[in-house]
Design brief:
Elements: H1 2-14, H2 16-20, H3 26-40, E1 43-49, E2 70-75, H4 78-90, E3 108-114, E4 117-125, E5 130-133, H5 144-154, H6 163-172
Antiparallel strand pairs: 1-2, 1-3, 3-4, 4-5
Helix pairs in contact: 3-4, 4-5
Length: 173
């Protein structure tokens, strides 16, 4: 238990002032930046993939050479891009003010492109409701996770599933 408290304390301390002291306006700024990124992107792709932790045999050792297994990738067409934008427009912008203490394991990545260049990348972990997006350094709105879940479902992917079983099956084939 002491180790959990120590790790949680270190996690919060390492998140920086943006997360440990969110401003009321962060959710709106995050939402506005995301809507702008969607509108200005020439191309948006969504990838469903494994996490390095999915194939762990020993839970105490994280393999440094583990490669993500890509299960599926889609490029958004005009209707899907419009749906993504509408979901983000409709979400409540109230800033998130507490954070889960689980280990981040992204299984979905959204990439925003300008031409052939990736302008930003959003990695999503639905297991504990966390997002890492290099498009802005603000705290997201609480509603981001449910809006992203709806979006992921709309492109035919699953926000949650038995990722370890899926990775083992993919590796076996």
């Amino acid at each position: 238990m002491r180790l959990l408290i120590l790790v949680s304390s270190l996690f919060v301390a390492s998140c920086g002032s943006d997360i440990s002291n969110p401003k009321h306006s962060d959710g709106k700024a995050y939402k506005d930046a995301l809507i702008s990124a969607i509108a200005s992107a020439d191309k948006i792709t969504v990838t469903e993939h494994s996490s390095k932790l999915d194939l762990l045999d020993d839970p105490n050792v994280i393999p440094s050479d583990a490669e993500d297994i890509e299960y599926q990738e889609v490029s958004l067409d005009g209707a899907s891009k419009k749906k993504f934008s509408a979901l983000m427009h409709d979400m409540n912008e109230k800033t998130q003010n507490s954070f889960p203490g689980c280990i981040f394991q992204a299984h979905h990545t959204v990439r925003f492109f300008s031409g052939e260049r990736v302008t930003s990348k959003m990695r999503i972990c639905f297991e504990c409701g966390q997002v890492q997006w290099d498009g802005i350094s603000r705290v997201p709105p609480w509603a981001l996770y449910s809006a992203l879940s709806d979006f992921i479902l709309s492109v035919g992917f699953k926000p949650k599933q038995d990722w370890r079983a899926r990775a083992r099956l993919a590796k076996a084939n």
